[in-house]
Amino acid sequence: MANEAAIGFMDSGVGGLTVVKEAMRQLPNERIIYLGDTKRCPYGPRPNEQVLEFTWQMTSFLLNKKIKMLVIACNTATAVALEEIKKSLDIPVVGVIMPGSRAALKATRNNRIGVIGTEVTINSKAYATVIQKKSPHTKVIQKACPKFVPIVESHKASSSIAKMIVAEALNGLKKQQLDTLILGCTHYPLLKPIIQHVMGKKVTLIDSGAETISEVSMLLDYFDIAASAKKEAVREHEFYMTGSQNLFNNITKEWLNLKEINSRKINLKK
Amino acid sequence: MANEAAIGFMDSGVGGLTVVKEAMRQLPNERIIYLGDTKRCPYGPRPNEQVLEFTWQMTSFLLNKKIKMLVIACNTATAVALEEIKKSLDIPVVGVIMPGSRAALKATRNNRIGVIGTEVTINSKAYATVIQKKSPHTKVIQKACPKFVPIVESHKASSSIAKMIVAEALNGLKKQQLDTLILGCTHYPLLKPIIQHVMGKKVTLIDSGAETISEVSMLLDYFDIAASAKKEAVREHEFYMTGSQNLFNNITKEWLNLKEINSRKINLKK
Lengths: 270, 270
Prior knowledge:
homodimer, alpha/beta, 2 domains, 11 helices, 45% helix, 16% strand, globular, EC 5.1.1.3 (chains A, B), Glutamate racemase (chains A, B), cell shape (chains A, B), Asp/Glu_race (chains A, B), Asp/Glu/hydantoin_racemase (chains A, B)
């Protein structure tokens, strides 16, 4: 039975838009409501309790919009909050860590997988735990890259300073003979060309967000809640942010290739 | 939490083994219990009520084995019984039609998709309905190939008579400018080289069974019921059939590349 309700996406900032971009490509019939907590971004350096609190605030906002499915399009929030939120809600809840891990295990040939992410994601060892549970002989090498999110949030992902910072951060990983590297933060696909250049062509980059949309697609079918096909692509996507609306609109329009977006600044704090 | 119970697979005959083969490759930690109703195969020409009745009998047998998930590895049974069985059981139930349809939509470039299957599957229009619900402008051309299953069940998939029968059956489809063809019967991957030869290299063949295992893999994670990794690959797979045990064992060992299998002939009728 068709379900025309929207899918809710949330992220600490604009990174989750990389997941939305993939959703718009793979699921053209679905309506999207996006919330980026840009004012309090990055979540990466924050204590777990605070990440959990903020993630619940975003969840409540989206639930009020009557969403049919929730995508935690943020690795930090997934690592800390997915399990609790999934257990509490009666709609499907999807995070980005499991799909990325599955894709990396499918891609690797030498069983040496790298993971880059924020400090919270890396300290949680969420990717390493999932991967080694499935495949104990696979080596997982992790590296926190706390400087990457601020680059993306300030709309400087193609600057020369971005190149320097990425090269410096990944220097150690280059010596690890990885054949697969998980972009364990939804902001990082915006730095993908630079990361690929630094790591070399032989390393497969896994975009956890894109993998997540395949899972969303499957679950929409499994629970029989996919939207019906529209004759004309009706775009009623809604975007919400907590920080600068201008900066958000600019990066969103550029990244999603949209001329106009329906966006509104909101306040999450009670 | 790891769940060491087996995944149950069922089919009207040996065709579902093509799905099992993919499960053994993608999910090496999972234990498999397979039931092929070889005595009453093919299901394709039978009335829907009978297919439903037989499918319920197979389901009951597998439920008694305490399976954690059920895969209806048979297009005919999926078309007729998936919805009812899924609603009735409290374990996840997966069919082969939805995953095959999704994969075909992802593969096609010219939006002309062919489907071959048994008479029941083709008459049910199950693939066409799913595909056109998602993408109304996609053309779906169907063709029932009732002679294919008996060829496979009699272990003659690489004979010269098989080549003649396949070429004759697909003759009309070749003129339809398809770029994607769904093997809408789990027996057909055993005829894949011949089908590919007849259709030509430019046509992408979609193996619904293989696609189904990607869905099984996701659902094992989503419901947190994947088996834990084994240090040594423990093979405790069980195979049951209702017809000739010798014929079943031969084709199973050959197709799954196993030296020995743990199999037993059973009686499904009450």
